[in-house]
Design goal:
CATH architecture of the largest domain in chain A: 3-Layer(aba) Sandwich
Number of strands of chain B: 2
Shape of chain A: globular
Radius of gyration of chain B: 20 Å
CATH superfamily of the largest domain in chain A: Response regulator
Structural class of chain A: alpha/beta
Largest interface: A-B, 53 and 55 residues
CATH class of the largest domain in chain A: Alpha Beta
Order of helices and strands of chain B: HHHHHHHHEEHHHHHHH
Radius of gyration of chain A: 26 Å
Helix content of chain A: 40-55%
Number of helices of chain B: 15
Strand content of chain B: under 5%
Strand order of the largest sheet of chain A: 9-8-10-13-14-18-19
Oligomer: heterodimer
Number of domains of chain B: 1
Strand order of the largest sheet of chain B: 1-2
Strand content of chain A: 15-25%
Number of domains of chain A: 2
Number of helices of chain A: 15
CATH architecture of chain B: Orthogonal Bundle
CATH topology of chain B: ABC transporter involved in vitamin B12 uptake, BtuC
Amino acid sequence: MTDVKSDKSNKSASGWSRRDVLKASSVGAAGAAAPMFFTKNAWADGHESIGNYPVKGSEVVFGFNVPQTGAYADEGADELRAYKLAVKHLNNGGGMLDTLKPSMLSGNGVLGKKVAYVTGDTQTNADASRTSARRMIERDKVIMVTGGSSSGIAIAQQYLCNELGIIFMCGLTHSNDTTGKDKQRYGFRHFFNAHMTGKALAPVLSKEYGKDRRAFHLTADYSWGHTQQQSMQEFTEKEGWGTAGNIMTPLKTTDFSQYLAQVMNSDADVLVLNHYGANMVNSLTNAVNFGMRDMQKNGKNLEIVVPLYSRLMAKGAGSANIDGVLGTSGWNWALQDAGSQVFVDAFVAEYGFPPSQAAHTCYVQTLLYANACEMAGSFYPPAVIKALEDFEFDGAGNGSTLYRGADHQCIKSMLVMKGKSPSARSSDFDYLEVVQEVDRATANYDPSIFPGELGPYKPA
Amino acid sequence: MKMQQGFFERNRSVFIFALIALTMPFWFPLIGGYSGLDTKIMVFCIFVVGFDLLLGYTGYLSFGHAAFFGIAAYTTGLMLKGFSDNIIPAIIVAVIVSTLVSVVIGLLTLKRTGIYFSILTLAFAEMFHSMAMAMLQQWTGGENGLTGMPTPMLFSIKMQGDAVFYFITFVAILMFYVAKRIERSPVGLMMRAIKCNQTRLEYTGINARKYKLLTFVISAAYAALAGALMVVYEPFVGHEFLGWHQSGEIVIMSVIGGVGTLVGPMLGAAFMLYFENVLSVDLGEQWLLVLGMIFMVVVIFMPGGFMEAVSRLQARFTQK
């Protein structure tokens, strides 16, 4: 028995002779040296290669990185629908290609190349989103990445893309940081932000509820929540309101009773819920269950405000709970301008129901990127970036819009929304009504109020 | 009759691993992989090898290894940001900090065994996660993660693309060799004895707690090294690095590959990352469901993971 064993090991010992080892290590050494021979140095139309430029072949590939699993999967699914529609329109014409002005889009691909796409799953997880974006960039050779349904994830991808020389067109991200302290040369945001929400919402609030109000904030304890709370406090105080308090609620909170009790014991007569997604659905439902919407404080009705509204959140909270509650949105499918109308019609024809604001911003971002490539006459990223910077356009659903060059934030009109009562609703997608369209001049702000640098046009 | 084996024979698996790993940039793209994913696989190979020393050899199932991974990642990130863009001091400090934390956690948790140990480690990891998300978000960036690091440098070499791959692969091969040495050492014997029967071991007059703590700390140091290298590979720290999901993923990688074999967990890590990033694209939204089913099939029919499949196949061929 032992003899057999030692025999076997003897045999295999000789199977790995010194020569074999030498062979193996020389293969390893060749492997280590090989990349030196393949360093990229391709030149095309006078530009050096950056990221996945120059684009080879007859197709140009876009990367759509959205949450397909996780907390924001519903929103991600709607974003993906919009992206697919945008690709269809870029290749075959139709949709906002007819309304966007100025536009060089032909409806026959971009710069003579058909648009193809790959998709990825961010899993509502920053690390996963970066790995997924990296796959698109390294393997699928995408020229541009777009997507993201929360600020943390958008910022994480924006840094990665900036480093690799790939333009990142943000999807739904509302934190001031995306185009504030974390702004990047290769990142662009069409969606509005928390600062603009505060600026637009505060005057409407003081008109509706009066100037002598005291607000209590409940704030989701992360970057977006913090910036949203600061902006709301700043602008409501400008209107003459007081701030009774602010509680940072952990992101994982599902029962907000303990915080709401503190709000009720304070002298506040307005409750501001700086929450998004499931947080907002839960905190609002808790507040309604506490009877806070029927409560009197300081001789006035206690009011609830939800700074950032989305249709999916409104649906989650239920229309009986959001009836009359004020908030802001970037866009709504009920808008009557030509750009919104063609987009909604195309979306409904394709999928059978109207698009969300996340779908709108993703769709517009794809078109704007493609149009910038046409304007630059090249996919060379620095040229495309320069085409996007300070680009003035109209007909994309938000009136005349500026892609501000100083911070890559779109300056455009936005909406103050109110929850509809159950009886006023016309369909299963009709939860919110437009109270006021806030014009671009009101939403505008000085980009230098936020720190951060865009950085160089060519990645390090 | 016992024969002294040669260096190459004893370390055959290390050489095979080195060969496969170093040639990865050539064959990996052929099966849909890409540069970047191979580097991440190497990082996780280090992580799971260390984890296997604890789970596979002493039988202690830690559900909190993400803590060591994450603490090291944050430390590395902050060192790169605030001290120097050279990765060497950053990695050293990160591993030291994380290892010290593991000594404290180890002392507190190793008094318990089985499910109690798992839950305690999980609780500690979640505590760190909550701290990163709330109290310490000034430093960690909270939900947004830690960003804005300079490009990591190995003295004058930029840690990007192939340079970072070969650097991390070199470390992975080294750490696998070290794990093999530990496996064969007297400590390795003690580790197996603890798994076999801790009470009996203690009756022989051996201080089992000392060896348990040693293994736990070694395993945490591996996790810390992986965490530090993760930031070298990608200058970004997500709060997910500290989360229970990360801890769970390591457990799944180890189980699917075959615990107690060192090689198996590495196979598991490669498979999981390959599946998550390459195959998931073809499967669409349902990829998590398919992954769950694969995990179930493996656990039910091959409790020894991929390594059991390998040894069964080997047995079949040698019989004939």
